[in-house]
């Protein structure tokens, strides 16, 4: 089943809603988000994401994230056991993502969780750019 996600994907956009259901600004700059995720057939993955806007509003911090690890994918849920990360809090964790497809886009949705001072439900949209 994991052969569906094997390859390299480009982050197209991110969306976010608050814990109260209100739409929030998209993560990593929304439609300016930059990112790549690669899934190998042997069960190894790596992801790099950042805010792709050339400049940020005053007081805003540039969002950046990267991690890698071994993954399993059952057709609906992706679980990565993180063994290296830009954030020490992810090391050794299981990163869980619900997965579905909208046309040619792979849609990854992590659990709702705190980001800064608010709770968010994020959704990331990925376009396949290579089968390797």
Detailed description of the structure:
Helix content is 0%, strand content 58%. With 132 residues, it is an all-beta fold. The protein has an eight-stranded antiparallel beta barrel with strand order 1-3-4-5-6-7-8-10. Strand 3 (34-39) and strand 4 form a beta hairpin. The radius of gyration is 14 Å and the shape is globular. The relative contact order is 0.25.
Sum this structure up briefly.
The protein is mainly β. It contains no helices and ten strands.
How many beta-strand elements?
A: 10
Determine Rg (CA atoms, Å).
14 Å
Give the overall form.
globular
Structural class determined from secondary elements: mainly beta
- Straight-line distance between termini: 16 Å
What percentage of amino acids are in beta strands? Answer: over 45%
Strand-helix topology:
Elements: E1 7-18, E2 23-24, E3 34-39, E4 44-50, E5 64-73, E6 77-85, E7 94-102, E8 105-109, E9 113-115, E10 118-130
Could you list some keywords that capture this structure?
132 residues, mainly beta, 8-stranded antiparallel beta barrel, 10 strands, 0% helix, globular
């Amino acid at each position: 089943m994991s052969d569906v996600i094997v390859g390299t994907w480009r982050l197209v956009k991110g969306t976010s809603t608050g814990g109260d259901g209100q739409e929030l600004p998209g993560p990593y700059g929304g439609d300016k988000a930059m990112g790549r995720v690669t899934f190998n057939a042997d069960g190894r993955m790596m992801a790099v994401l950042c805010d792709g806007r050339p400049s940020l509003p005053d007081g805003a911090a540039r969002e950046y994230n990267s991690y890698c690890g071994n993954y399993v994918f059952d057709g609906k849920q992706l679980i990565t056991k993180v063994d290296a990360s830009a954030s020490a809090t992810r090391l050794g964790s299981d990163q869980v993502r619900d997965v579905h497809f909208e046309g040619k886009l792979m849609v990854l949705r992590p659990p709702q969780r705190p980001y800064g001072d608010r709770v968010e439900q994020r959704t990331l949209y990925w376009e396949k750019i290579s089968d390797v």
